[in-house]
Amino acid sequence: MTAKKTLQFVDRVQSYPPKRAPGERAGDFDEIAQRYVDQVAEDQAGRCSQCGVPYCSVHCPLHNHIPDWLRLTAEGRLQEAYQLSNLTSTMPEICGRICPQDRLCEGNCVIEFSGHGAVTIGSVEKFITDTAWDQGWVEPLQPGPARGQSVAVIGAGPAGLTAAEYMRVAGYDVHVYDRHDRSGGLLTYGIPGFKLEKHIVTRRVERLEAGGIVFHNSFEVGRDATLEQLREKHDAILIATGVYKPRAIKMPGSDAGGVVEALDYLTASNRRGFGDTLADNAATLDAAGKHVVVVGGGDTAMDCVRTAIRQGAASVKCLYRRDRANMPGSQREVANAEEEGVEFVWLSAPKAIEGGDVATAVRAAKMRLGAPDASGRRTPEPEPDGDFTVQADLVIKALGFDAEDLPTLFDAPELGLTRWGTVRTDGQTMMTSLDGVFAAGDIVRGASLVVWAIRDGRDVAEHMHKWLKARVDTGANRKVAA
C-alpha cells in the first residue's frame, strides 16, 4: 500500500497551493495562499521518498515526524496524520504558515537534492491541522491530576505558551503574565495577517484558557509585581519574554521625524486589524501615500515592506548591504514582496537621513562584498564614490532585536546575563542564576525563529517538571497562586 501512495516524486510535479494574484492580495491583509483540497494534499504528500535518513526531520528544530505524517496523509489517514503531527508541536498550523521551510525541512529534502523539487512540507502541515480544527479533531487541553504546585510564565509568546501547555497537562497551576493586552507575543503583534491571520493565534490561546491556564494580560513585571514577588507566589518561574529592544542605526538624522522602529510599525498595523483605537501619533506609523524605505534584510524587514504595500505606499524600497544570495530573510518572502511591487536595492547601506527635523530622503552608499568574516559571510565594503540618494517620507529600521535590561526592568539585579544581554542559563537544566527561575526562547538564544521558541518551551517544561517533582520528593513547601 505504501509503495503505491508514496515515492511518487518522479511522476508528480511539485505544486504549492495557488497564490492570489499580487494586485488582489496587496489590497488586504488576508493570507496570500489558498489551502490544498484533499486530493491535492494527498498527491503532494505522496511525493515523499520515505528516505531512511529523513533530513527534513533532522533539520526541523522540533524533529517532527515528517515522513510518517506525510505517508499517512498520502494514504488518506488524515486524522492519524494530525495526531502524529501534534505529538511534537503545540502549534503545527502556525509553523506550517511562518516557518522558513526553504531553509529548514524543505531545504534539506532529499528529492530537492535530486532535482525533482522538495515535498511541500509546510503547506501539507498547514492543511493537516486546519482540517483538524474544521473537523473537530483538536481536543481540549486536559489538565493532569492536580499537583498543588504553581508555575508562573512571564511572556505569552510561542515559548511561553508552549511551556504553559505542557506544564498544565502535567497537572500544575499555570499563570501566564504578559505586558500586552492580548496573548501571543510577536505572533499577535509582530507578524502581519497576510502571513498569519490572527484568529489562528486566538483559537490556540482560547484552548489554553479553556484548559485552566490563567492569563494576566497588561501585566508588567517590575511595575505590577517584582520578580521576587512572583517567586514568593509561585513554586517556579519561567522567563520567556523574547527580545524586543531594536538595534540602532548609527548615522546622522536617525532620530528625525518619519524614522520609526519596525516593531512599532508592525504593531500599529496589527492593532488596526483588530480595530483598536491608536495613539494620536499613529499617522507616523502609516505608509499610505508615502515613499517608504526599509533598512534591513531579515524576515522583519520583509514583513514591513509587504505591509507598506498594503497600506497604499507611493513606493517601497528595501536597502540591504549584501546581495540577494546573502540575505538572511526567506527567499520566498523576497519573491512575494517583489511580486507585490517592492523594489530591492541590493548592496546598499544607509549613511544618513536627510531633511532635517523630518525625513525626506536616505543617503546611502553602494557596497561590494569583500573577504569572508569569521562566520563565513563576505563582508560588505563601501564602493568609492558610490553614494546615492533615495526619496523617503517614512524610514523603517528593521535591523533586528536585542534583549532588554531585564534585571533592571524586573527589579532583580541578581539575575545573571550573558555578555550579549540575554539571560544566562545552565546548559543542563535551563535554570537561571536564581533558584527555581528558568528561562527559554529568544531571551536566552537571541532573536531566532518561532519554531526554535516552541522547541525551547517544550524542553524547559521537562526541566521545570523534574525540578518541581524533586521539591515534592524532598518535602519543600508548595504554593498555589490565587
TrEMBL record:
Q: Where is the FAD/NAD(P)-binding domain?
A: 150-457
Name the UniProt key words of this record, in alphabetical order: 4Fe-4S, Iron, Iron-sulfur, Metal-binding, NADP, Oxidoreductase
Q: From which domain of life does this come?
A: Bacteria
Q: Know the name of this protein?
A: NAD(P)-dependent oxidoreductase
Q: Which InterPro entries does the record match to this protein?
A: DPD_II, FAD/NAD-bd_sf, FAD/NAD-binding_dom, GltD-like, Helical_ferredxn
What is the required cofactor set for this protein? [4Fe-4S] cluster
Q: Please tell me the species this chain comes from.
A: Stakelama tenebrarum
Q: Which residues form a coiled coil?
A: none
Q: Which residues form the Dihydroprymidine dehydrogenase domain?
A: 26-136
One Pfam family per UniProt: Pyr_redox_2
User: Could you state a single Gene Ontology molecular function term?
Assistant: 4 iron, 4 sulfur cluster binding
